Amino acid sequence: MANRIFVALDTPDLDRARALAQKVRHHVGGIKLGLEFFCAHGPSGIRAIEEIGLPVFLDLKLHDIPNTVAKAVQSLAGLAPAVLTVHASGGRAMLEDAKAAAHPSTKVVAVTMLTSLDEDDLAATGVAGSAHDHVLRLADLAREAGLDGIVCSGAEVKAAHAAWPKGYFVVPGVRPADGELGDQKRVVTPRMAADHGASMLVIGRPITRAENPDAAARAIAATL
Ligand SMILES: O=C(O)c1cc(=O)[nH]c(=O)n1[C@@H]1O[C@H](COP(=O)(O)O)[C@@H](O)[C@H]1O
């Protein structure tokens, strides 16, 4: 199977992003660029990283009224990212319109419950019940809206995959056994995420903050 690791290059520094991507390119399957990078460099920054030759996941987690999200997705369609994120909690119409506006080759995936949240955080937003149930409910919504898949933690991916065998499952919040959690709360090891059905593992700081990012990416890939 192709390398399922997408390295998250969370930096506003284009030269650093490019240098990191060059270092790890032989040990990852793709590159994830998110808000930090996009706010600093926009579409031209995405094109600059695309030149490295790996698939790009554009993680903007769009969440607004359907018309606004659809127009934003339409504006991004020329970039034809391999994967694009929207928030599942934006609701069915927003999800349907986002998918309709995307480039046909782009997988549109819905963020369910951020891996930086636990059930106390969920309750504080007014959602009762478990993380598991919340993720499964939003996965159903994404599937019914015609999306390609979801983003969830490794704790839920097995159940989500069982309920949606053809879905595409993006799993962030991935840490090697001795890895620092940082702001992540629902974490699993790379091996567990892969064994439980992740289509893509998003890994940032365990690679980008390592003394030798190339060796860190290689070591993680070797565990899969
Ligand atoms: O959509 C995402 O990629 C995402 C969703 C989520 O629930 N949690 C999450 O951490 N992410 C992203 O995954 C990356 C995780 O980075 P690290 O915690 O450094 O490995 C970051 O770029 C986050 O923006």
UniProtKB/TrEMBL annotation:
**Catalysis: reaction(s):** orotidine 5'-phosphate + H(+) = UMP + CO2
- Classification via InterPro entries: Aldolase_TIM, OMPdecase, OMPdecase_AS, OMPdecase_bac, OMPdeCOase_dom, RibuloseP-bd_barrel
Q: Does the keyword GTP-binding apply?
A: no
Named in its record, the pathway it takes part in is: Pyrimidine metabolism; UMP biosynthesis via de novo pathway; UMP from orotate: step 2/2
Q: Which UniProt keywords apply?
A: Decarboxylase, Lyase, Pyrimidine biosynthesis
Q: Outline what the protein does.
A: Catalyzes the decarboxylation of orotidine 5'-monophosphate (OMP) to uridine 5'-monophosphate (UMP).
Assembly behavior: Homodimer.
Family recorded in the similarity comment: Belongs to the OMP decarboxylase family. Type 1 subfamily.
What protein name applies here? Orotidine 5'-phosphate decarboxylase
Species source reads Sphingomonas endophytica
* Gene from which the chain derives: pyrF
